[in-house]
């Protein structure tokens, strides 16, 4: 099942002319593309699917969604270690 996961934007930055952010998913931090939510600010919550923030939501709604996903055990993908985007891939 494909789900959008709520996360809190903790930092924003530009990378290769693309608005990006560091997003906190309950203690797991991921780099996310914020180009589809250009007005998002640090401290706000977004729904993220496959690395893209799709919508800004309020904190109460984010908590409800996160609790539901925990309840149905759909947060496993957050436990997978993220590849460091700053490391180079060996050829």
TrEMBL record:
One of its GO terms (molecular function) is carbon dioxide binding. Gene3D superfamilies: 2.30.30.140. GO terms for biological process: protein maturation. It holds the Pfam family HupF_HypC. Belongs to the HupF/HypC family. NCBIfam families: hypC_hupF. This is Protein belonging to Hydrogenase expression/formation protein, HupF/HypC.
